[in-house]
Amino acid sequence: MSIRFRKEARPTPKSALRASTPLLLGAALGLLLVSCAPRAEEQQRPLVALMNAPAQVALAGTAEIVQDVLQRDEGRGFDLVSGFTMRFLESHTDLFHSRAAPSAGRIARGQGANLAVMIGAPVLDRNVTVSRDEASRRVDVSVALEAQVVDPATDAIVQTLRTRTHQGSRVEANDDPLPDPEDDETAIALMQGAAPELARSLGAELPYLFSELLIGSSGG
Question: Percent helix, strand, coil in the chain (nearest 5)?
Answer without folding.
Answer: 45, 25, 30
